[in-house]
Write a structure and sequence with these properties.
8 helices, Rossmann fold, alpha/beta, about 45% helix, globular, about 240 residues, binds NADP nicotinamide-adenine-dinucleotide phosphate, seven-stranded parallel beta sheet
Length: about 240
């Protein structure tokens, strides 16, 4: 496998999509850092799953909205595994509200985690990532739709798509690719929390297959982008959404 022996940091890997990405990269032979912000037990569970399958992993806490903690995440990874080859900027939050109810604090929190966290993790990658490396950022397919209450969340992800595009030519001289995955609705806490079964059903009907995405659908796309066959793909946002429209 092309990721055999490579070192991958997956942010927000204690739960949801990041958890599955970490498990699949571990199964493919990468040494995986499971970053999380608060759920240490869940992060340790992911480490155990990877180790029990014969892989190598470590859980490292770090709030990605704080630059000092992003720096520590990279230095601890390099201290433990010697290098970084793959960065998956998966950690993110979604806080949907009508504009009349949005607060400065909730606006800033979404931008700080989704945009600032992604940007400064990319900065660490620029400083420390090995040549031949890969960065994968996370947007959402909602950035191509018009959904009430999603404006701030979609704006953060629009920013992530632009960071991905604009950084491609800064990373290319280091032989590092940078792309963005924009999932559709995926069956995780982030999507399901606070939604009625009726609302979830309406989202199911918005894609071509009539089901929610599973974390594995997204982790499979990450595996495609980290493979050696994807080295000519950079600066792109790839919508992985079963035809969501
Ligand atoms: N699910 C969907 O339908 C969907 C659709 C489109 C895009 N996405 C994007 O996909 C990514 C993953 O979403 P998900 O559905 O898997 O979310 P999730 O189930 O809510 O999991 C979020 C993960 O991010 C971590 N996290 C949150 N804030 C953090 C911070 N400040 N620093 C470090 N880690 C932090 C959490 O850690 P703790 O466990 O420690 O809290 C958790 O591991 C996000 O970027 C999201 O915007 C999701």
């Amino acid at each position: 496998m092309s990721v055999q022996g490579k070192v991958a940091i997956v942010t927000g890997a204690s739960r949801g999509i990041g958890r599955q990405i970490a498990i699949q990269l571990g199964q493919a032979g990468a040494k995986v850092v499971i970053n999380y912000s608060s759920n240490q037990d869940k992060a340790n569970e992911v480490v155990k799953i990877i180790e029990q399958a014969g892989g190598d992993a470590a859980a490292i806490r770090g709030d990605i909205s704080k630059v000092s903690e992003v720096e520590a995440l990279f230095s601890e990874t390099i201290g433990q595994f010697g290098r970084v080859d793959i960065l998956v900027n998966n950690a993110g939050i979604m806080d949907t509200l009508p504009i009349a109810e949005m607060t400065e604090e909730r606006f800033d929190r979404q931008f700080n985690i989704n945009v600032k966290g992604t940007y400064f993790a990319c900065q660490q990658a620029m400083r420390h990532m090995a040549g031949g490396g890969t960065i994968i950022n996370f947007s959402t397919s909602v950035s191509g739709a018009m959904l009430p209450t999603y404006s701030v969340y979609a704006a953060t992800k629009g920013a992530v798509e632009q960071l991905t595009r604009q950084l491609a030519k800064e990373f290319a001289p280091k032989d590092i690719t940078i792309n963005c995955i924009a999932p559709g609705q995926v069956s995780t806490e982030l999507f399901l929390n606070g939604k009625s079964e009726e609302l979830v059903d309406s989202f199911r009907r918005m894609n071509a297959f009539g089901r929610l995405g599973e974390p594995e659908d997204i982790a499979n796309a990450v595996e495609l982008l980290v493979s050696d066959k994807a080295r000519w793909i950079t600066g792109q946002t790839i919508r992985v959404n079963g035809g969501f429209n």
